[in-house]
Each structure stands twice: as C-alpha cells, then as structure tokens.
C-alpha cells in the first residue's frame, strides 16, 4: 500500500528533479554544473513545499531510484546519442536556441536567460498557492495528491505568465524544453510503481467510435455543438477519475499541460464541487464569491495567470469559462495506469479490472451530464426551460444509459517490455515482427560494443507502446481489446420485437424514427400544419402532447403556459421535426447553456459578420422606425437580427435568431422576407449619408483585408483612391448589405497526423547531424573544445544504431511526445481564438489537428488561411512571443462548404467532409518558384456550395510566397466583384477558351485570361484609373500562371480553379 503523501512527494520530486532554468545555468555554473544544478533544483523544491505538509517528509533511498529511472526512460533515445561516446565529465555546451524536432534546420533563440530573482519569484508564488490549497483541503484524504496536481497544473503557466523563456532539456539535443522532459519523467513514474519498482502498469487507449455520425446528427448549430461538447466532456470525465486517483500525469493524450479542462478539474476539486463541476461554467464568479477570502483571492490569481497565458481579452466573453464551453478534447484518450494500491481506490491488477473501471466511469460521466441538463432547465423561472426540463425528466430512465459504449485497447506494459528484450537480446525474430521491428538487424546490434541491450529495450519501450498498442492489444500475450456496443432500443422475444420503453411506441403508426439521427425512435414529434401557402406551423395535437409529457395539461395555468409556449417553441423546434431521447438531450443541453454560449443558431452565424459591420457603421443610422413600419416590419425585430450575439443582453430572454420563424410570424414567405429586408438595408445605406471610403474600409475589415498604410495593401489602396475620386460609388458598396441566409461549414484536418504522432515523420538522422554545425556556430564550449567531436560521434553512433534497428529517424521518446501533444493543445486554443474574433463564427471542435467551425461567408476564407498559418508557419508555438514547443511542419487541408440556413445541416457537414477527404486530401500541386519546379501534395483548400455543382481548389502551402499571394487574391475577390469586376467573367472565359483550355500552355492560357479580365473591368471615369486597375489585377493574378493541380488522372490549372471560384462566390456576397 502506498499512501497519498508518498505518492505525491515522489511525483513532485520527479517533476522538479531538474531546475526550470537548467540550460541557462550552464553559463554561470560552468564545469561545476553537474553537481550544482541539482542543488538549485533542491532549493527550488524546498521553497515550493515550504508551507505544506510535505515540507519535511523524506522519500527514502528506494524511491530515489525511481526518480533516476523515470529521468532515464523519459529521455529515451536522446541519451544514446550522448552516452555512446563516453562523454567526458565537466564538459558541456552552452546553447540558447531551440530546434524544431521534425525539421532540425529550423531554430529560434529562446530569449534572455531568467534572472535568479525571477526563478525564485515563481517558486514563492507556487509555495503561496500550495499553502492555501493545503489549508482548505486538509479534510480530504488525498490532500497531498491534490497539492501535487495543483503544482502539475500551475508550474508551467506561472513560469510563462512571468514572460520567462523555457530552458532546453539538454543543449546537445536541443529539440525540446525542460518542461517537456520533466512532465514526461513524471508520467514514466506510473510504469515504475509496483512493489519491486520494475516496469509495469497498463497503457490504455479509449476511443468513442462513430463520432461523425454522433456529432453530425443535427439541424441547428446548437445540436452539433452539443454533440461535440458531450463527447469532449465524456472522454475528459473518464480521464478525471484516473487523474484524481493517481495524479494528472496519467493522462498521456490529450495533454493536461496548459489545458483549460485540466484547470477546470483542479478548480472543481479546490472548491469541493465533486460531480458538479459544470456549475463552474455557468456560475464561476458566484461560487468563488461564496468562499473564504483567502481561497477566493488565490483562485482569482490562478485565473489571472491563465488569462495572461491565453490572451483571452482578444475574444471577449467570460474569459476562461468560454474555453470550458469549447469542445477541445478528442474522442480518443490515452492513459498510463500504474499497478499500485492506494487508500480508497481499487487496485487494478488486470486489464479486465481496468476496462470495468473505464466503462463504469464512462457511464457515470454520462449520467452527470444528464443530471446537470435536467437540473439546470428545471431550476429556471421561464416556462420554456422548465417545460423542456420536465420532458427530459420524463425519459430519465432511458437517458440513464449512454447511446453507446467505448472501444478500449489495453496493453500490459511489463509484457511488452519483456517482448522487446526477447526480441533484441534473444534474437526472437517472430517477436520482433509483432513489435513492428521487421527490419531489425539483430546481428549488428549484438556486435556493436556501444550498445547496452537492456538500456536499449527501455529506450524502445515508449516508441513501441505508441506505435503498436492498438495491434498488440489484439494479441493475448500483450493485452486485450474491448469493443463497444450500441444501446438497444428493442428486444426480441417470443418472435416479437418490443420497445425497451412503451413511451417510444405511443404513436398510431407504432414508432417514428428520429429526424436528426435516423437511428433512435422519436419521443416527441412536431408535425407540420400548413395554414396558408406561406405559413407552416405546428399541429395543435402535437403541442398538447408535448404539454402532456411535461405534466402541464392538468395545471390551472395551462392556458397561460400554452400561450407562452406557442410564442417560443418555434425557436427551439421546427415543424416536421421528430426527436429521439438522445437528440432531444443534445437540444436541451445547448438550451441549458444558452446564456453562456456566444453563438446560438445558424442564423446567428450567417448574420454575425454583417451585424458587426452595421455596428461599426452605427445601426441607428440604418434602422429608422417609420421606414421599417412602412414596409410592414418591426424595428425591434430588425434591431435584434442585426445586433451581434455577444451584445444581446442575456436578461432580455429573446428567442434564438431565426429568419424562418420570423417569416412565419409575419405570415410571409421566407424568400419574400429576405428580399424585403435586403432591399431596405441597401436603400437605407444609400440614404444614410455614410461616406463611401468609410463603407469601403469596414467592408475590407470584415473580409480580412488589412486597411493600414502598408505598401503591400495594393488592392485596398487602389480601391480607396477610386472611391475618393468617386469612381466607385456608394451604390456599389451598399450592395454589400443584406439579410444573409448563407454561412460556411469549415472542416480542416492536419495532413498525415497519424504518422506524426507515431514518430514516423521526424527529421532524418542526417538532418540532426547537420544541426551540429548550427550548434557549433551559436554555442560556447565549456570544459573542452573537443565536445563538438564527441557530439558528432554521438550522432554517428545514433545513425549506426538506427540502421541496425531498421529505423530511418529517431524513435519517439516520452519527452518528444510531450512536446507534440502540447503543440496540438496550443493549436486547439488558438483555433478557438481565431474562429471567435469579433464578427466570426462558432467552433464546433478542435483537437489541434482537425477542426470544425461554422463561419459567416464574408470571413471564411480569411479565417481558414489564419487557421492554416496557426498550425504551422514559423516553426514554433509561442506564448507572448516566447517559443514553447515545435510546431508540426505538415500541411493542414480545409473544406469550405457554403450552405443555406434552410439546408439539411447534417447532410452538408457530411458533404464538407467528403470534399475534404476525396478531393483536397488527394490534390497534388506543381508550381515554378524562382525558376525551379516545386511539388507537394495535400495542404489544400476546397470551396464548394450547396447551390452549385462547381468546386474550386487552392494550395495552402503558406511558406511559398506565390501561394501566399494567390490566397490574398482569393480573399480580395469578393471586394473586387463588389467594386470593379463584372460577375460575367466565368461565362466570358469559358465562351472564349472552351475545351481547348486542356491543351494550352501556361503562357497562352494566361494571355487569354488577361484578355477576359480587360473585358470585364467595370467602366471607370479615366483611362489612367483603368490602367492602374489592370496593372493591379495582373500583378496579383500573375502568381496563378505556373501553378497546376492533379487529382488522380485529372489535371487543372490555378486559372481554371479561380474561374470556378468566381462562379461560386459571385452569387453569395
């Protein structure tokens, strides 16, 4: 039995076994670094623990060995590069650049070394927080583990919040930080916690299968967001059980480091919320306010650290709470579960025990979400929320079971380790094949005197676990695979098919399928009642049935409630909808979070950019009550439609923005309402007295075109000149306004991310050898100038060992895995911030590699470009301009699907994904750059529309200047069509070129294209203006000249893709 005090102290010792400024100390400690840097680490540890119950507790010699062993395993193959050369003592390299682990040629300076005073300020701040945590959690049995979890969560954020750069883990292998190494080391402890401190424990991969079908079943933004948020929180809740039992380090992926969900977990424990942590999302301020002042202030300080870390001011909202509403946790998680006996926790000795525990907590996690939704709705004062809460309560017995289970792959780490030794020590080639080491040269390994085979086995352990666990779990001698099951809605007995609950068969036809997912039987049905050709509403019988389910039919105030519901229900449900229990829960979930969500409906998304645009112009200038009344509409309704959702007071209790429902209220056809409002906005804009140049500036800003004075902004500068000379009139610019009924579904996915996460895309060992030259030029030798010879020899030895192992790049180490996982987490948070810029859309999911968002059409192209740049452009992820970890140098392909708010959302999400996978991901591009051909695959944007059969593709390789220029032209095109270009270009071009396009060379095709452009520039007052416009167009479009696209046997040109893009975009804005 290991008590929580010993477990916490062991993990704290490992987490702080190196100084946080380790590599910077080389400069001051010199040849004495080896001995003295440990003293620095001990002093830091002593200060951190000084106010806690662990301050004077010893670890013991037995567990000191665990600290050293965890350190060695975390470093893994990096140590081979160094130890194989018998590196001389008191000899070091002082180096202050970090290199990208995938592309070692790319490097950046870390920054100024932290002062000692800064380092100890971090220690004192941590100490103060831990002292308060210890004081207010003294009655909790695992209080020492909570101290460790607090330190784990805050160590890195507090360091970065002070503006301090990270240290390198080792200057001789400068591809990751000391934080990567420390967090990897403490994770490795979980493999060393059995009684004999041998390698043991379980590597568990948990996956919620069929996520696309689960998430995409919806007709509203809220349905899809709720599905995604449900998944993120179900998976994270499984993680939470093991985090609170063994420590946050047991979660391998997604990383808890700098993870807003990990902060929520910590605050929930500190505030004693237990299973009520979702209350933090809706009532954080009130919960904190009701706590003791000392705890209150401590938590406020923690929140301030994260506010600085994430720079949340730029996206508005309620700070960290907005991140808790973002689905940032993928549907797959990986845990490293120790074999350990601790108080009040069941000892997990077998994979069956682990699987049962995972399944049990998955079900508990599901029930907690259902409980939260039900209680949140019923506790509200308004009739709609309470009615919906009663409906959820009526099917509580059905909802207590999740709609499906999870797949669980569990590997016994001890048996994998034994197998690796059997492979490389006993030359068992069959075992080597099972482990994925099919090309291993066993004889070469055994004849290499530099290799200790026992140490090599440990160095390969993590690489094998990460790359082969899913396969090894299918082999009994390594582990076990547990497949999920869908929950049944029917039982078959005695030749009869019967429902699990009679509530699902109360309709005259027996049962009706859910109109959202098509999988579950419906529980509530709202049939269409066509009053007039222009007005579709609900059948009264279905409303009565809804009230009956909610136990309202027999209440005295039934008529009053019915009247309130009739006015509001259109905004929650649509005529013709039939919802099963689980899809109804999703709808109820996002309604319960309504006051906290930033975007509430597809109409919100469609209108968000034009609403921000009108706000900048001054909405009162456009909306005049008398004129609006004259066209049969209400100023209040239009004001609400065009007020940015973030500005709508939550106290007003307005229904969701819904153009279709508004048309019904006016007894008007949906298209007629659209045309009437658009015509009114355009005319009001013309009569408003707003200056043309002000309109142009705001349109450019919304689309994403910079409006500063930079010489690079050729298009905007020229259009501004034309506007000031009255060659672009107010009439053209006012056409930008309108009642938007289209929005963009965006799907993005990092290219080859599976290979990257398994270490198959690291830089070739030869690239690492080339890195030595960079180290030589920018480093300082300490102790002996011969160190560079030793370093070169180390990488030579590494290449030799890799060749014997049959590998082409360094095998993935725990520290490097930490760096990659952190990179994905930081990207996910940045994705949210990009998507939620003012006037932007709503994030449905981001895991750092793949991303789904709904965006207004005006900003979609600019946002996608920024999402691509954020994934990889400069080589490193940065916080406050401090390089934190390597960015992943691969492409990120995107699909923009432009759809109407009346389209079937689930179908269009599927279409967006299909175009991404079947077209963008199969694209191959060739371009001439500086006279040389350059080819790459994937990294592509595809743009399609539900109202067009056209598809248009563009490369996203942002590191190539001509491609950057092409993307700028694509982004500027809507503004060009609004002002100076005719929308007839596609017909003119196709009529001129026809089928001969396929056979033309680049030069001829481009000349035809230029001719078409000349014919389609709108009339301008002066010839010089026309000449300047054409020169500007030629300069931008010249980048298209030497770019070709191949998809299978199909060939296209960038010019052709641009023509197709014009066909799509000209009818949208």
TrEMBL record:
One of its GO terms (molecular function) is nucleotide binding. Residues 743-922 form the Cas10/Cmr2 second palm domain. The keyword Transferase does not apply. Residues 204-370 form the CRISPR-associated protein Cmr2 N-terminal domain. InterPro entries: Cas10-Cmr2_palm2, Cmr2_N, CRISPR-assoc_Cmr2_N, CRISPR-assoc_prot_Cmr2, Rev_trsase/Diguanyl_cyclase. GO terms for biological process: defense response to virus. Keywords: Antiviral defense, Nucleotide-binding. This is Type III-B CRISPR-associated protein Cas10/Cmr2. It comes from Ignisphaera aggregans. The lineage of its organism: Archaea, Thermoproteota, Thermoprotei, Desulfurococcales, Desulfurococcaceae.
């Amino acid at each position: 039995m290991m008590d929580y005090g010993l477990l916490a102290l062991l993990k704290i010792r490992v987490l702080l076994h190196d100084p946080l400024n380790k590599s910077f100390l080389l400069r001051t400690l010199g040849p004495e670094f080896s001995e003295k840097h440990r003293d620095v680490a001990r002093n830091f540890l002593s200060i951190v623990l000084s106010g806690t119950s662990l301050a004077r507790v010893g670890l013991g010699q037995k567990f000191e060995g665990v600290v050293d062993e965890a350190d060695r395993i975390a470093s893994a193959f990096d140590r081979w590069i160094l130890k194989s050369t018998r590196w001389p003592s008191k000899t070091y390299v002082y180096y202050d650049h970090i290199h990208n682990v995938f592309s070692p040629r790319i490097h950046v300076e870390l920054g100024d070394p932290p002062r000692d005073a800064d380092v100890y300020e971090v220690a004192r701040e941590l100490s103060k927080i831990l002292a308060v945590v210890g004081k207010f959690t003294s009655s909790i049995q695992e209080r020492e583990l909570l101290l460790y979890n607090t330190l784990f969560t805050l160590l890195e954020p507090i360091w970065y919040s002070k503006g301090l750069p990270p240290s390198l883990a080792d200057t001789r292998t400068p591809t990751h930080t000391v934080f990567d190494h420390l967090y990897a080391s403490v994770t490795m402890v979980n493999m060393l916690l059995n009684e004999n401190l041998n390698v043991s424990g379980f590597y568990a991969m948990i996956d919620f299968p069929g996520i696309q079908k689960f998430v995409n079943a919806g007709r509203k933004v809220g349905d899809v967001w709720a599905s995604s948020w449900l998944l993120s929180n179900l998976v994270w809740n499984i993680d939470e059980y093991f985090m609170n039992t063994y420590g946050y380090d047991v979660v391998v992926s997604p990383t808890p480091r700098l993870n807003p969900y990990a902060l929520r977990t910590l605050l929930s424990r500190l505030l004693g919320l237990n299973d009520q942590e979702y209350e933090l999302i809706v009532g954080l301020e009130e919960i904190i306010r009701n706590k003791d002042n000392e705890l209150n202030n401590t938590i406020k300080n923690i929140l301030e650290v994260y506010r600085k870390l994430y720079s949340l001011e730029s996206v508005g909202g309620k700070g960290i709470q907005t991140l808790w509403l973002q689905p940032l946790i993928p549907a797959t998680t990986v845990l490293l579960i120790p074999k350990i006996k601790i108080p009040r926790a069941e000892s997990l000795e077998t994979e069956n025990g682990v699987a049962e525990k995972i399944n049990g907590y998955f079900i508990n996690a599901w029930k907690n979400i259902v409980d939260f939704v039900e209680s949140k709705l019923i506790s509200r004062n308004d009739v709609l929320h309470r009615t919906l809460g009663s409906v959820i309560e009526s099917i509580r017995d059905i909802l207590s079971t999740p709609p499906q289970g999870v797949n669980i792959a569990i590997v016994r780490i001890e048996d994998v380790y034994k197998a690796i030794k059997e492979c490389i020590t006993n030359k068992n080639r069959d075992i080597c094949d099972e482990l994925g080491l099919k090309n291993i040269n066993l004889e070469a390994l055994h004849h290499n005197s530099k290799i200790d085979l026992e140490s090599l086995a440990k160095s390969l352990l993590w690489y094998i676990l990460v790359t082969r666990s899913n396969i090894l779990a299918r082999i009994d001698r390594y582990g076990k695979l547990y497949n999920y099951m869908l929950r049944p809605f029917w039982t078959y007995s005695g030749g009869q098919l019967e429902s699990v609950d009679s509530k699902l068969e109360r309709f005259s036809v027996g049962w009706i399928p859910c109109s959202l997912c098509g999988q579950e039987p419906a529980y509530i049905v709202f049939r269409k009642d066509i009053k007039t050709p222009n007005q579709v509403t609900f059948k009264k019988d279905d409303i009565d049935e809804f009230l009956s389910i909610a136990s309202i039919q027999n209440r005295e105030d039934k008529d009053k409630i019915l009247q309130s519901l009739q006015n509001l229900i259109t905004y929650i449900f649509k005529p013709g909808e039939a919802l099963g229990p689980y899809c109804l829960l999703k709808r109820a979930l996002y309604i319960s979070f309504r006051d906290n969500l930033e975007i509430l409906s597809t109409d919100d998304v469609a209108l968000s950019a034009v609403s921000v645009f009108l706000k900048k112009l001054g909405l009162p200038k456009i909306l005049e009550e008398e004129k609006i009344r004259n066209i049969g509409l209400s100023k209040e309704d239009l004001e609400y439609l065009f007020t940015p959702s973030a500005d709508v007071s939550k106290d007003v209790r307005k229904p969701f923005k819904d153009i279709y429902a508004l048309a019904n209220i006016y007894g008007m056809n949906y298209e007629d309402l659209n045309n009437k409002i658009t015509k009114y906005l355009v005319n009001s804009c013309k009569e408003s007295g707003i200056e043309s140049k002000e309109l142009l500036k705001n349109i450019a800003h919304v689309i994403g075109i910079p409006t500063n004075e930079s010489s690079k902004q050729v298009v905007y500068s020229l259009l501004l000149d034309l506007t000031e000379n009255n060659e672009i009139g107010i009439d053209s610019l006012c056409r930008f306004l309108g009642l938007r009924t289209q929005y963009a579904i965006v799907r993005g996915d990092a290219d080859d991310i599976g290979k990257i996460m398994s270490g198959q895309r690291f830089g070739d060992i030869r690239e690492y050898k080339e890195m030595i030259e960079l180290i030589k030029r920018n480093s300082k030798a300490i102790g002996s100038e011969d160190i560079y010879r030793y370093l070169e020899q180390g990488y030579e030895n590494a290449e030799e060992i890799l060749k014997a192992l049959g590998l082409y790049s360094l095998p993935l180490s725990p520290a490097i895995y930490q760096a990659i996982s952190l990179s994905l987490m930081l990207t996910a948070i940045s994705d949210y911030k990009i998507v939620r810029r003012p006037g932007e859309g709503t994030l449905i999911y981001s895991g750092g590699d793949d991303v789904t968002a709904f965006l207004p059409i005006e900003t979609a192209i600019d946002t996608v470009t920024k999402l691509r740049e954020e994934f990889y452009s400069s080589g490193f992820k940065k916080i406050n301009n401090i390089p934190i970890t390597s960015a992943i140098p691969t492409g990120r392909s995107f699909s923009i699907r432009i759809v109407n708010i009346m389209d079937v959302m689930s179908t269009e999400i599927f279409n967006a994904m299909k175009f991404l996978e079947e077209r963008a991901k199969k694209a191959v591009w060739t371009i001439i750059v500086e006279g040389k051909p350059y080819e790459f695959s994937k990294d592509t944007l595809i743009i399609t529309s539900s109202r067009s059969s056209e598809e248009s593709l563009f490369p996203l390789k942002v590191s190539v200047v001509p491609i950057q220029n092409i993307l700028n032209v694509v982004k500027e095109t809507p503004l060009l069509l609004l002002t100076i270009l005719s929308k007839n270009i596609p017909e003119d071009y196709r009529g001129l070129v026809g089928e001969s396009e396929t056979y033309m060379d680049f030069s001829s095709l481009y000349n035809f294209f230029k001719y078409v452009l000349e014919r389609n520039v709108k009339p301008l007052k002066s010839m010089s203006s026309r000449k300047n416009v054409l020169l500007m167009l030629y300069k931008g479009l010249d980048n298209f000249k030497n770019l070709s696209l191949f998809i299978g046997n199909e060939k296209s040109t960038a010019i052709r893709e641009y023509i197709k893009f014009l066909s799509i975009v000209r009818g949208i804005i």
